[in-house]
Design brief:
Layout lengths: L2 H37 L3 H29 L1 H21 L3 H29 L5 H26 L5 H8 L1 H13 L4 H6 L3 H11 L2 H20 L13 H16 L2 H12 L5 H26 L4 H24 L6 H21 L1 H11 L6 H27 L2 H4 L2 H19 L9 H6 L3
Helix pairs in contact: 1-2, 1-4, 1-5, 1-6, 1-7, 1-12, 2-3, 2-4, 2-17, 3-4, 3-6, 3-7, 4-5, 4-16, 4-17, 5-6, 5-13, 5-16, 9-10, 11-16, 11-17, 11-19, 12-13, 12-17, 13-15, 14-15, 14-19, 15-16, 16-17
Bound molecules: beta-D-glucopyranose.
């Protein structure tokens, strides 16, 4: 097998974690109608069923934060895949709402673990000139998982026990992740932190030319030696010298989530129902999934060429314009001609997804996988991931509540999201720094 084939095999296996992330978060969009009908959910039970995955995901980073640096990147993902298997079965066979919530909590826990560990595993295995593209495989897999959940929803929508069939579908990638993870190598950088130097060199030789392997091996060892001299612990993340990466982990996810992405990913069918029939609304949601995946592939072409910052600026300006357009469509609902309003809403949402998918989507996971020093990388990127779930949960809970108020009717929610995105321009200018073409070790030297 050529070195490239091995790298892409590893990326595909690891990215299955992203597929499960996308599937298990996105499926709620299409499973809700059948859940409402069969389990007679009260509004508070409904928000618990939606929020359970996100709530569970907030705890995943605490588990991975302490175990990723101890057990290694591979073992922790094997554990997560088993949790996925158990959670998928429990959700699919749940006899009542409480067991369903328990299954969804477990799925969330597993998502929280893989979201914190897969991007960093990919970053540590990638050659520096391909790192952006490799880590973005994870984002691509998230979008494919979301798309898969919408398609499964479209296919099973009218079946009896539709939600059970939809949850069963998540069992298949969980098994694939488990088997695949047994086959891939451990991260050479993590092996070096444990003094398993020979194994590390062996893995590097599988992935790089002999010269590159030795150079990377020596560079990482040298860095670890320097780090040993000034002993570090996870508390270091909160020290002044790491303030910028700490802010990046909080800021990028605050902006990503408060740009309102998941108001659309989780509730688009409900939004489209105000314009179309039920089946057209589900089809329009499948369209969101397709556009999301295609635009992510487009973004992958540019991350390592243009760099992270130009894409971030483009995405922020583009999403702000689209959010404003959607907001105006609500604000002038009664005075706009129906056709124009429809175009502004559907066009605005689809174009928003494109701008998100080439920038804020991949950049969140990419930046937290590359800006932290090796010794605390597992812990730090887990904390970044925790921020993601916390903000995600806030948006998922607040969107349906705000929609019922005047903010929903006059487009206020979308104007709030637009303001957040515009504030993101300051974050992009003053906090984010360019990591294109730098090795993880070069990035780390910036803080020493
Ligand atoms: C975000 C998810 C979002 C997805 C949409 C990811 O980067 O973390 O919250 O649902 O993008 O594609």
């Amino acid at each position: 097998m050529s070195k490239n084939t091995i790298i892409y095999f590893i990326a595909a296996v690891a990215a299955t974690g992203g597929l499960l992330f996308g599937f298990d978060t996105g499926v709620i969009n299409v499973a809700l109608p059948s859940l409402r009908e069969q389990l007679q959910l009260t509004p508070s039970q409904e928000s618990m069923v939606v929020g359970a995955v996100l709530f569970g995901a907030m705890f995943g980073p605490f588990i991975s934060g302490f175990l990723t640096d101890k057990l290694g990147r591979k073992k922790i993902n094997i554990i997560a895949s088993l949790v996925f298997v158990v959670g998928s079965i429990l959700a699919a066979i749940a006899p009542d709402t409480n067991s369903l919530i328990a299954g969804r909590l477990l799925l969330g826990l597993a998502i929280g673990i893989v979201a914190a560990t897969v991007p960093l595993y990919l970053a540590e295995l990638s050659p520096k000139d391909k790192r952006g593209r490799m880590v973005t495989f994870f984002q691509l897999a998230i979008t494919l998982g979301i798309l898969l959940s919408y398609v499964v929803g479209y296919i099973f929508g009218d079946a009896e026990n539709a939600w059970r069939l939809m949850f069963w579908a998540g069992f298949v990638p969980a098994i694939i992740l488990f088997v695949g993870m047994l086959l891939v190598p451990e991260s050479p950088r993590w092996l070096l932190t444990k003094g398993r130097n020979e194994e590390a060199l062996k893995v590097l030789n599988q992935l790089r030319t002999p010269d590159e392997a030795v150079a990377e091996y020596n560079e990482t060892l040298k860095l670890l030696e320097e780090e040993k001299l000034n002993k570090s612990s996870w508390m270091e993340l909160f020290m002044p010298k790491l303030r910028i990466p700490l802010f990046i982990g909080i800021g990028i996810f605050a902006i990503q989530q408060f740009s309102g992405i998941n108001a659309i990913i989780y509730y688009s069918t409900d939004i489209f129902k105000s314009l179309f029939s039920d089946s057209q609304a589900t089809l329009a949601t499948v369209g969101v999934g397709i556009v999301n995946s295609l635009a992510t592939i487009l973004g992958m072409q540019f991350l390592d060429k243009w760099g992270r910052k130009p894409l971030l600026y483009t995405g922020l300006i583009g999403t702000a314009v689209c959010l404003g357009t959607v907001g105006l469509a609500f604000l002038f609902e009664s005075s706009l001609p129906a056709g124009l309003r429809q175009m502004m809403l559907v066009g605005g949402i689809y174009t928003y997804i494109i701008f998100f998918a080439i920038s804020l989507g991949p950049l969140g996971w990419l930046l937290i996988s590359e800006v932290y020093p090796l010794k605390i990388r597992g812990f730090a990127s887990s904390m970044g991931s925790f921020n993601h779930w916390f903000f995600d949960l806030m948006v998922a809970i607040s969107f349906p509540l705000m929609r019922a108020t005047s903010l929903g009717k006059n487009g206020g929610i979308f104007f709030i999201y637009m303001i957040v995105v515009l504030l993101g321009l300051f974050f992009a200018k003053f906090v984010v720094f360019e990591t294109k073409g730098l090795s993880l070790e070069d990035i780390e030297k910036k803080y020493n």
